[in-house]
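Suppose you are handed a protein chain with no further information: no name, no annotation, nothing but its sequence. What can you learn? This example shows the usual starting point.
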Amino acid sequence: MQRREFLTAAAVTTLAASNASLLAAPKADKPNILWITSEDNGQEMGCYGDTFATTPNLDTLAERSLRFNLAFASAPVCAPARSTIISGCYASSLGSQHMRSHAKLPADLKLFPFYLRQAGYYTTNNSKQDYNFACPKGVWDESSKNATWKKRRKGQPFFCVHNYTESHESKIRLTHKPIHDPKKVTVPPYHPDTPTVRTDWARYYDSVTVMDKRAGALLKQLEADGLADSTIIVYFGDHGSGMPRHKRWLHDSGLKVPMLVHVPDKYKSQLNDLPQVGVTDRMVAFVDLAPTMLSLAGLKAKAFHQGNAFLGKHAAKPQKYVFGFRDRMDERVDMSRTVRTKQYRYILNFFPHYPQGQHINYMFVTPTTREWKKMFDEGKLNDVQSKFWKPKPVEELYDCIADPYETKNLAADPKFKKIKEELKQAVMDWMVRIRDTGIYPEPMVHSASAKAGKTPKKFFSAMDEKEYRLVLNRALRWLPEYLGIRADESRSTTIIPAGEFWASEGLLNQALNASRENEKFVFMCRGIEKISSPSRRANYASVMIRAEIGDKGAAKCKAEAIATLKKMLASEDGFAVHRAAFAINHLPKAEMKAFGADILKVLNRKASGKNSPLAYGQRLSEHTAKVLGLKVPASQKYKPASEKGKKKKGRKKPE
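A reasonable first move is to predict its three-dimensional structure. Written in C-alpha cells, the prediction is:
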C-alpha cells in the first residue's frame, strides 16, 4: 500500500471510530454494571441493623457486598439529586438545584453514560430520568420501561439502571394490606407519637418491603442470564424516606442513604483498599458516582466533574467533607447548604425567616404532615417536635454520633466554636469552588445567563472569584447574626443586582421580626414598580405592606406595594407570578385580604406545565385562598397522587 493510501485509510478508520463509537469492539475485561435504585428510602433496612424492616433480598445481597455506612445524597429530593448523579456536578453549580426546574446544560458537558457508551458499553435506563434538564442525545441506547441488558450485542458490556418507585413518598398515602404492625414502630423524637404517625411509618416500611421484592426478582434474572459473575451491582436509595423532615431536608434523615456494592471475584482489584465483603465508613456522595463508574470502566473523570471516584482504576483518596444543598422545594423558596464529616453536620440557612415546615402542597397530602402541623397549631408538641414549624436558626451544628436524630443544635455552644468555624469556612470555600448559582435568586440565574448568551454553568464559571465572594458575603451579611463576617462595603456590592436582592431579604427578615427601621424601609422600597428583578420587587413590596411607617408617605407606599404585587400576579412572566404569590402567602391574614380576587384569577389561568413557575404560583395562591376561606373551584385545586389505593386516569406522577 502506498504511504498516501495508508494515511488516508488510517484517517477514515479514525473518523469512523470517533463517529460510530457503538461499533467499537467490546473488551472482555470491562465489567458489566447494574444499578438498582429505589426512591425515597433511607437506611431503614435489615442490613443496616433495622430489625423492624423486612428486606430479605437486599439483605442477602449485602452479605456478599461492601456496605457503605456513610453514603449521602447530594440533595434530599429526587430531581436535584438525579441532576447531580447523572452529570457528576452539583446541581447547584448547573442552576438545576430547584425542585423542579428547567436548566440548560453546556454543549460540552456530557452525562457520564455517554462516555461509557463511547467506550463500547450498552447503556439502558429503566426508566425515570427527571434530571431537571432535557436528556441530550447519545446518552442511552434505550430509556424506557422495557429497557434491559438483553438487547446488547453478544459479549458487549452493559451499564443498566433499574429504578423502583415502590418506596416513593406517595405510597405512604395508599391503603393496602399491612405488612408491619404500627404498634411496633420506633417513632423518631421530632415526630409526635400518634396512631396516624405510626400508621404512616408502618406503611413506609411496607413500601420498602415491596421494593425489596422487585429488586430480588431483578437479581434472580441476572443470575438466570448467567451474568452474576461478570456484573458489578450497585444498589442505593435516592434520598431519605418520604416522611416529613426526611425527604427535602438536610439532616441525615434526608441525605443519608443505603448503598451496597457487590464486586465479583474477577473484578475485586477494582475495590483497591476497600474490602470485597463487609462494611466501610468511607464517606461517599452522589456527586462521586459519575467519576466512579468511569473509573470502573478504566476511564478517567472529566475536568468538569466535581466528585471523586471511590472505586476502580482511578480511585481518589477518601474525602474529609461531604457537601449537600437544598433550594426551592416545589412552590416554596428556600436555600440551605450543608457539610458532613464522619462526626458532625453543619447547616447554613440563607432564609432563616422561613420555617423548615413551609406549606408544600404535595407534602401536606401525607397524613403525618397534616396531623403534626395541627398539633403544633394547638400547642400540643414539645420543643423538639415544635422546632420544625418555627423559623430556622442561621446555623446548625450536630454531633451525628452522640445525637443521631440531630435534635440538639450545638452552633451556639462555645465548646464547639472551632468546629463550627471550620465547617462554615468549608461550606463557603466549596460554594466558591463550584460557583454555586444559589447566590442569585432563581429568576435572576436564568435572566442573567440568557442576557450573557450563556448557560448558567458557563455564566457562573466565568465569574471572577472576587466578584463571586462579594455577592456571597452580601448574602451572609444580611443574615440576622451576620455570622461574624465583615462584608466588603465598597460601592461595587450595591450595584450588583444579586447583592441588592440579599439586601431586600435582610429588610424582609427585619420586617418579619418586627424590627421597625422605618426610614430605611422608605428609602429602600420606594419606586419598587421599576425594579426589574421579580424577587426583589416582591420582597420590597412585602416589607412595605408589613412596615409601620410613620411618615406622611406611609399610606402611599403601602398602596404602591399592593398595586405592585397585583400587577405581578397578572404578569405573563411565570416567575413574577410565583414570587408575588409567595410574598402574599407569607403576609398576615389581614393583609392577604387585599389580594383575594387577584389570586382567584391566577387559579383560572392556564399553566404550561404542572412544574412551571406559574403552576407553582397557582399552588401558593390556592393555599392563600384556603387561608382566607375563599371557595376554590374543584377544577383548579391541586391534585397530587390519590390517597386511595386505586389508580386513576390522569393521576399525577410521583414527585
